[in-house]
Amino acid sequence: MIMDDGIADAGARNEEAPLGLRSGRLNRRSFLVGSAAGLGAAGLAGCVSSDDMMRAEAAKLYGPVPNDKFAIPAVDISKVDPRYFRQKVRYESKEAPGTIIVDPGKFHLYRIEGDGMATRYGANVSRPGFLWSGEVYVGRKAEWPTWTPPKEMIARQPEARKYAGGMPGGLENPLGARVLYLYKNGVYTVYTIYSTSDPDTLGQGITSGCTGLLSQDMLDLYARTPVKTKVVMLPA
Question: InterPro entries, alphabetically (predicted)?
Fold first, then answer.
């Protein structure tokens, strides 16, 4: 996989620089699987931690997806901090249900569900120098998209030149199984919310303005996010 110190410039294709986004550094771009009583019947209630129970439930959420266009492998959840598992959480917001809020300081993405609740996903976010904040929206969506490195990335990483004509969708494609392209005033910002199969990236600042979720989480978010959905990027 071509990586630009992360997923730099992922999804860009000769688009203009981001418009109207606030940044002084802006460049381009519970879980419970059973009751204690049930476990107690097996004599194990005192031996199973809440973390063990969370991981048991997470193993179901992050299992393999064999029937997509390309078979998506299971996530090695031993590599994921439990705080980054997908879960429903209390989250007070004035935003409408469906709105996406990215909190890069906490490495979380929230989908507002209403009634003070949100679905929270673990994420990777921008690295220093590419952080930004502001309001954008989902301008288009794609499944297993083609990725074309922009000329700025090719200048930094000449090995990316072989994909100047586009890298077909697939497991090695930096955008992964699903992508939401973020727009401002009708113009593509070059930023995306994309999918990754690398759990080691969660909780990391690695991209040039994009936000990455585990593929299984991205499948969930993508299916519930129509074009025109508002996206709010909080200050780091």
Answer: LD-transpeptidase, LD_TPept_cat_dom, TAT_signal, TAT_signal_bac_arc, Transpep_catalytic_dom
- pLDDT value for 224: 98
- pLDDT tens for residues 89-113? 999 999 999 999 999 999 999 999 9
Domains in the chain, number: 1
- Distance (Å, whole) CA 124 – CA 230: 20
User: Residue 228: which of 140, 130, 114, 134 has the closest Cα?
Assistant: 140
CATH number, position 115: 2.40.440.10
Q: What are phi and psi of 217, to 5 degrees?
A: -70, -40
Is residue 193 assigned to a domain?
yes
What is the tens place of the pLDDT at every residue in 155-165? 888 888 888 88
- Which pTM was predicted? 0.79
- Can you give the residue range of the structural domain that contains 220? 83-233
